[in-house]
Design goal:
Layout: H1 2-21, H2 44-47, E1 50-55, E2 67-73, E3 78-84, E4 96-102, H3 104-110, E5 112-117, E6 123-128, E7 141-145, E8 148-151
Antiparallel strand pairs: 1-2, 2-3, 3-4, 5-6, 6-8, 7-8
């Protein structure tokens, strides 16, 4: 009887913990209030990998020309996606994109992070933060909104 009670308690605790983390469905509000899309210069092959785009860098001067999105990938992971536009001196094909994705349960604990380095010496990082995230950031990262930290 004692084994049965412990088994039931363990199963209940596991279901409760799974419900607290795995069912967390992060929502990100775009400052404009409208769904986002990748710019036309982003290749269709790359764009087709992501859905539920929200431009989280809108109005954030520290992001420069980089566009930073929250998204879902084709495996339903939560992602931070950085898209850097073509340079003025380039031929239009020197844009680049980078993404960091993870399961919803992992995102709920520590967010999603990506570091990137592209053409022309452009580099940086983006850390999409889960709601209520209050952990200290690693050295070199600056919180620029409740849901976003960047690294130059």
């Amino acid at each position: 009887m004692r084994k049965l009670a412990l088994t039931i308690l363990a199963a209940g605790a596991a279901l409760t913990l799974a419900g607290c983390t795995a069912s967390a469905d992060p929502q990100f509000a775009s400052p404009s209030g409208s769904p986002a899309e990748f710019p036309d210069w982003v290749s269709e092959d790359f764009a087709d990998e992501y859905s539920d785009l929200t431009l989280v860098s809108e109005g954030i001067a520290e992001a420069g020309d980089d566009l930073i999105y929250s998204a879902r990938d084709n495996k339903d992971n939560v992602c931070v996606v950085v898209v850097a536009p073509p340079t003025d001196g380039g031929n239009g094909d020197d844009w680049f994109a980078s993404a960091g994705c993870g399961p919803t349960a992992i995102f709920a604990e520590r967010g999603a992070m990506v570091s990137y380095s592209g053409t022309g010496g452009r580099s940086g990082g983006a850390h999409l933060l889960p709601p209520g995230f209050d952990e200290p950031l690693e050295a070199g990262w600056s919180r620029v909104s409740p849901q976003l930290a960047i690294r130059d």
